Amino acid sequence: MATEHLNFINGKKVPAKSGETYENRNPADQDDLVGVFPSSGGDEVSAAVEAASAAYPAWRSLPAQARGDIMRKATELMRERKEDFAQLETREMGKILKETRGDVQEAIDTGFYAAGESRRLWGTVAPSEMPNKMCYVTRQPMGVWGMICPWNFPMAIPSWKLFPALTCGNTAVIKPATLTPASVDAFVGCLQEAGVPDGVVNIVYGSGSRVGEALLNHPGVSGVSFTGSSEVGRRIAEVTGKTLKRCSLELGGKNAQLVMADANLELALEGVLWGAFGTTGQRCTATSRLIVEDGVYDRMLEMVVERASKLKVGNGLDESVEMGPCVSAGQRETVHGYVEVGKGEGARLALGGEQLTGDGYDKGFFYKPTVFADVTPDMRIAVEEIFGPVLSVIKVKDFEEGIKVLNGTPYGLSSAVYTKDVDRAMKAIELIEAGITYINAPTIGAECHMPFGGVKDTGNGHREGGWTAYEIFSEPKTVYVDYSGGLQRAQIDNA
Ligand code: NAP
Ligand code: MG
Fold it and tell me: Using a 6 Å cutoff on CB, does residue 249 contact ligand 1?
């Protein structure tokens, strides 16, 4: 039975004023109705921002450690429900259970990290240039944060935003992706049960154009945390730029794995299979390009095609399945559109290139694992984010060309280099234009206590994950305490 969900505003279930709803269905099986959600708009956003503003003074005055305790309790509830949450996530988003268990676990890790971090919201103390005076910096919450989430990590990404923001003493209004609202509902349910007061976290369901825009433009919102495409990210930056709100952007990627001729090819193979076809290629850190040094190119390509052709595609609830569907019909069309582009550009289709049909496939948005060989760096399939199970394989003559090709996209999120030469690995770390570099490991695999994010069109300099997330969600306050008993004038008395 599908559950009918309502917005969550000030601790209460609230329908959309319009009365409109939308259905959330399983991308592996369109007969499976996961839930019905309200199609909300500006009115619900305003009510949620008001509730979050009203709840802010009391929440920020709680000791941080008390907020951290609530985060811990919520996380314990998530741990108890991990398997149910993973099943729910697979049903609404499509990725296989092994991965949705990982997604929920990432949220759990982030929650426990937040509980610990609540005791370490450290500032800095510095000596003063004057006698009998001290200077220090402490961190303060900012008010109401608007959070806008994508569908590919339905619980982990909301947790990267909510846990640190709440721990810092902010309140929040979150807009889940239209395609994956149920995971946010489940997550926020744990926060509420753990004792997060009414109004501190609010959920408004609905489209980016209505709910997202209303949240961005609301004067009561102090900051916007956005994860999604670079295209929408530019829109968020435009509005928050005009209104001088803080905005943190985690955007797209066109990640590459560079394989040098001296690499352990078996290891590189495992890496690229997981990186390119895990989550059906729908990760911001997915391996979309495999750049291989001449000499091992033919062998590597052959190995990839051979293994990718054997990947079992199907409904992610089946434990034996290795790759689920695309998240939606639209996403699958986008992927196929890129396949047509690749063929038109003269790349050689070595595997896949079409949707999967027939028994077990007709009710979902399945696409074959796809490999393009002989891709050249100027082709669109070598430069643009595809966000599907499509790998572009590119041959380079040496390390220098490899790095140049790797850097030849507007994005800069993740990267991987396979080599046994430590000097070259170190040089690659120095030269690669990306927020994350892996050595002898795939482009995916972020750990929750480490900064996460990218350079160039992938973001605007912030890093979620780890301690840097706490810098996003707080403002430094510089304090001078003068205990001299007289007027001391910086830059003047000392000159
Ligand atoms: P998207 O289309 O940019 O949507 C992201 C979110 O923004 C959704 O909640 C969407 O609402 C909302 N939105 C759309 N238009 C908006 C507007 N004008 N104002 C405010 N909000 C708006 O991205 P997606 O398709 O969900 O996710 C895929 C993209 O996310 C890829 O580019 C991927 O690389 C990127 N991503 C990046 C990271 C990272 O950390 N760097 C992580 C995961 C994903 P609807 O749901 O209603 O469309
Ligand atoms: Mg769905």
Answer: no
| 326 tagged catalytic | no
Q: How far is the CA of 490 from the centre of ligand 1 (A)?
A: 47
Residue 185 three-state SS: helix
- In degrees and rounded to multiples of 5, residue 459 shows phi and psi of 180, -170
Class of domain 255-439: alpha beta
pLDDT at position 3: 85
pLDDT for 344: 98
385 lines ligand 1 (CB under 6 A): yes
Q: Which ligand ends up closest to the CA of 452?
A: 1
Tokens of 454: 């990218």
pLDDT of residue 436: 98
Q: Where are the alpha helices (DSSP H) in 62-204?
A: 64-80, 82-93, 97-117, 156-167, 181-194
Q: Which parts of the chain have pLDDT scores under 50?
A: none
The rounded Å distance from CA 92 to ligand 2 centre is 4
Provide the pLDDT for residue 79.
Answer: 98
| Residues 419 and 260 sit within 8 Å (Cβ to Cβ) | yes
HEC profile for 203-269?
Answer: ECCCCHHHHHHHHHHCCCCCEEEEECCHHHHHHHHHHHHHCCCEEEEECCCCEEEEECCCCCHHHHH
Q: Which residues belong to CATH 3.40.605.10 in the chain?
A: 3-251+459-478
d(CA 474, CA 263): 43
Ligand 1 within 6 A of 253 CB?
yes
Measured in Å, residue 149 CA sits from the centre of ligand 1 at: 6
Query: What span, in angstroms and rounded, lies between the C-alpha atoms of 159 and 108?
Result: 8
82-93 and 181-194 helices, crossing angle to 10°: 160
Among the listed residues 68, 208, 106, the one whose alpha carbon sits nearest the alpha carbon of residue 450: 106
- Phi, psi torsion values for 365, nearest 5 degrees: -110, 60
CB 25 within 8 A of CB 33: yes
Backbone angles phi, psi at 445, to 5 degrees: 135, 35
The answer regarding whether domain 3-251+459-478 maps to CATH 3.40.605.10 reads yes
Please give the span between the terminal C-alpha atoms of the chain, in angstroms, as a whole number. Answer: 76
Nearest CA to ligand 1 atom 20: 212
Identified catalytic residue from 149, 168, 284, 326: 284
All CATH 3.40.309.10 domain ranges of the chain, comma separated, are: 255-439
| 190 belongs to the catalytic site | no
